[in-house]
Amino acid sequence: MVGRDREYNYCENMENLYITKVVRVGNSLGVIIPKNILVGINFKRGDTIMFSEYAPGQVMLRCLTDIEIRNLKIRVAKI
What we know:
37% of the residues lie in helices and 27% in strands.
């Protein structure tokens, strides 16, 4: 039943469901995020984002403010 519940949660909001593939970007791998999703979450070209594994198999993305970027650089420099 867990599998069915999980599948149902993915399909609950179909207008926000997108499927894409992991692609090669130079020597790395990347995922293309559709423009309307980026606009909806207010991400722009050149933004610095932070990402982490939120739960097993789930990733959270968050745009960093200039203050957060500066504070992270200070913390890293102290290590």
